[in-house]
Every structure is written in C-alpha cells, then in structure tokens.
Amino acid sequence: MDYLPIFINIKNQPCLIVGGGAVAARKADLFIKSGAIVTVIAPKLGNEMKFHLSHGHIVWHMAEFETELIAEMPKPKLVICATDDQAVNLTVYHTFKALEVPVNVADQTEYCDFILPAIIDRAPMTIAVSTGGRSPVLARIMKARLEMLIPHGFSRLTELVGAYRQKVKDAIADLDGRKAFWEATLSGLFIDKVVHGSQQEAEHILDEALEQVKTQGQSIPQGEVYLIGAGPGDPDLMTFKGLRLLQQADVVLYDRLVAPEIIDMARREAERIYVGKKDKWHKLPQQDINQLMVDLAKEGKRVARLKGGDPYIFGRGAEEAELLVKHKVPFEVVPGITAAAGCSAYAGFPLTHREFSQSVVLVTGHQQAGAKGVDYARLAQSGDTMVFYMGIKNAPQIQAGLLEHGMNPNTPAAIIENGTRANQKTTVTTLGELAMTIEKQTIKPPSLLVVGEVIRVRERLLNPQALSESEKQFYAQESA
Ligand code: SAH
C-alpha cells in the first residue's frame, strides 16, 4: 500500500482551502460534510464556492495566498491547495510542511501528504476508493460500480444497527455471543427490510431476536423463504436481488423450468432439492412442496424457492406465500422476467406496438378443473396481443374458440419453444393453421403461443437471414 487509509475526525476543527475555483469547491464540500470549520483563501470565488459562501459553510479571505496571512489564523488541521498558479501551490506546500500540517496540492501527488479517495457515501457508512493517486478516473469507475451494488438504504441500515448496539451489549454479555447475534441478523431478510424502507418491521425482527435471548439464553435462528423469479431460461435474465438472496440461502428448492446455471450460483454448501412436477422419480404434489418449505424454514433454514419466470404469473407463488403467512414465516417475493416478456423479445417482436396492439393479455391454456373457462368471445373482439402459457395441448380448442368468435384466420401466431435459451425455436404461422402446424411438428416444452398482429413487427426487426423460408413467404403473401 502506498498510503494508509484512515478516517480523520475534523469536526469543529479549522481546515484551510487555498483557491476559489470548481476543484477547490469540490474539496471544500468534503471538509464541510465532515463538519470542519472551513476557511478559503482566494482573490475571487467561482460559482460553486459562492454557493458554499452564501450558505454560510465557509469563511472567505479575499486575497492571494501569502505566508503572513496565516499568522492571525488558528493552525489548520488539514490544508488543500487548488490554484492554477504553481508558484502559489509550492508556497502553500512548503509553508505548511514547515508547520507540520498535512497538505494536499490537487492533482500533484508529489506535493501531497494525503490524498482524497473517491467516496461512496452511505453515511454513516462510508466507502473510500483510491488508486494511490495513479488514476482518479479508474477510482471513479470503481466508485460507480460500487454505487450500483450498495443500495442507498444502507445509510438507514447502519443507523439502525448503531442504535441497537448498546441494547445488544446489555442483553448479550459475551463478545462471541454478540458477534454471532449480529452475523445471524445481518445476513438475512432484515437487511432487505431496512434497505427497502420497512423500518418498523426491521425493528420488530431485532426486538424479537433480543427477547429470545432474554427468555431462552440465545436467539434461535429464524428461518425465512425467498420466492425468487428466475426468468424464462437465459441465466442472465435473473435479477440482482434474486441472485443476492439466492446466495444467502441454505437450501434451494427448484423446478424444471429453472436454468441449471442459476442453480449453480447458489452457495456451494447449499442443499439443492428438485421439486419439479414433471419427473416421474420425484413427483412432489404442490401441498408437499409448500409443507417442505415451511418445515425447512421452521428448522431455521434460509430457503430459496426458485421459480421459472415470475413467481406470481401462473407460478402458484401466491399459494405458497399464503401458507408462509399462515405459519408466520418471514418471506420476500422477488419478481422475475415472465416467459411472455422474455420469449417475445428474444423472438424479435414486442408485445405492444402503437400501430398493431394497444394491450396484451396473459392467458393460461391449461385450466384447473372447475375453473371458469377462457372467454374466447371477449378475447376475439379485444385486439389484445394474446400470450397463452401451457397452451400447446389445447391449441385446437384455442384456435377454434377464437375463430368461432370472429377472429381473422390470417392473424399471425407464433410458437416459441425453449424461449431465451440457446436452443430457442420460433415458428410463425397463422391462427387458422396453428393447430395443424403444431401437429405437424414435435413441439418441445416449455413452449409459448402468441397470437396477434404485433408479430408482424418481427419482419422489421430481424435481419432476413433469421427468418425461415416459410415465414418470408408468409409476410410476402400478407403484404401482397
Ligand atoms: N411463472 C412462469 C410461468 C409458469 S407456467 C413465468 O412467469 O414465465 C409454465 C409455462 O410457461 C410453460 O408451459 C410455457 O408455456 C411457459 N414458459 C415458461 N418458460 C418458457 C420458455 N423458456 N419458453 C417458452 N415458454 C415458457
């Protein structure tokens, strides 16, 4: 390391800035935020520095820097010099060097006793990044990356944890016990509760854990469940939040539609349990999956329930959530990219378009016994883009239902197999030939059916080589 990274307390301490321009003002801003009493020596001030002056944040000495000037001033704790005049810069440097006051001459590491890092400000949490003066731009790029990773709510999190520090000290006498308490708390859903604003819930979790320590001598790790939407197939379509929660899970429950690459992203030690329905060796009814989830959480485990697409779109996520509520298991639902959004984008057409379709409807092609059937009359008249999930088997009924209620048999229809995966296959046909097209080919699950004029946009967005011969013919006939 070229420099020792330290955080210096300069609250109510005199600090000096020489220079009144934009660079000097940015440095002054750091002093001000840290609570210093800031004096600026400069013959004139730029707009940024005038802003500090007008808010009473600085005291201004309207003058060129001269060594005599500082005789009447209290000795500063730190000095930053940012002027265009190298003679002034050097005078400042040597003057304060002689007084043993640390100096920083902006952008000249050879005249710096200290350097200022790029800062990710989640005060009271502060992250400082330095390249040892080699590349401020690289430090800023690194800062931008970290800004993305650390939600702004970390300020609140740090405040809250600080406020509970003494309480936890009072409740847990030994150091190891306190460490275990905080490690357990600060890795679970608690963080998400605070970061996303639910302060009350977060305090409740802390209070309960502390109460347990008081009554039972230790806090029993509280299990929790994350219902995570893993997207339609391409592992890159998982969300940051989904990944973050997946990586803190002790157990991962997944089904057939979840990409193996996503399951691999769980911790190596995490137990992985397949709960897919389409496997004759491991046929787990939905109730058993739900119960397993509750049981694992009650054992104190962190359970990630990975679901294809979005958990709340034909994913039974709400049924699982309901049971978790009933059993008082804390949980979080992480939305995912649903098959309709993923498959259409990767197939090269949108779901809505100003010229073709003002609305979109997601329909299940597979209905539970006793459920009210799909209203084909309404759909056929709607002008909606229709996306049928689980619709391949019932394609003949879907086709007949829509045609019967007056839909044009020439309306484009698309069958998308293995959407967003490397082996995605898109077949474009018409509503009138949909069932026949499916019958002629072996369609592999998972597959999605889309019906709507908006599919025509595919011709404009894909390069001609990506369109099949029959599809080219199809568009040619249509526009003829
Ligand atoms: N919750 C999921 C849907 C579960 S229902 C979501 O939001 O996407 C399962 C149906 O989704 C499948 O029968 C199929 O119609 C559709 N599906 C899911 N992933 C798909 C994919 N990669 N390609 C095509 N269809 C898919």
Tally of helical runs: 18
Class by SSE composition:
alpha/beta
Give the % helix.
25-40%
Radius of gyration equals 32 Å
Strand order of the largest sheet: 3-2-1-4-5
Name of the level-1 CATH class of the largest domain: Alpha Beta
Task: Please describe the biggest sheet, giving its number of strands, its sense, and whether it closes into a barrel.
Answer: 5 strands, parallel
CATH topology of the largest domain: Methyltransferase, Cobalt-precorrin-4 Transmethylase, Domain 2
Measured by DSSP, the beta-strand proportion falls in 15-25%
Give the uncertain stretches in residue-range form. none
The CATH homologous superfamily name of the largest domain equals Tetrapyrrole methylase, C-terminal domain
What's the architecture of the largest domain, going by CATH? 2-Layer Sandwich
> What is the 3D form?
extended
How many strands?
17
C-alpha end-to-end distance: 72 Å
Mean pLDDT: 91
Number of domains: 4
Bound molecules: S-adenosyl-L-homocysteine
Give the key terms.
480 residues, alpha/beta, Rossmann fold, Cobalt-precorrin-4 Transmethylase, domain 1, 4 domains, five-stranded parallel β-sheet, 18 helices, 17 strands, 38% helix, binds S-adenosyl-L-homocysteine
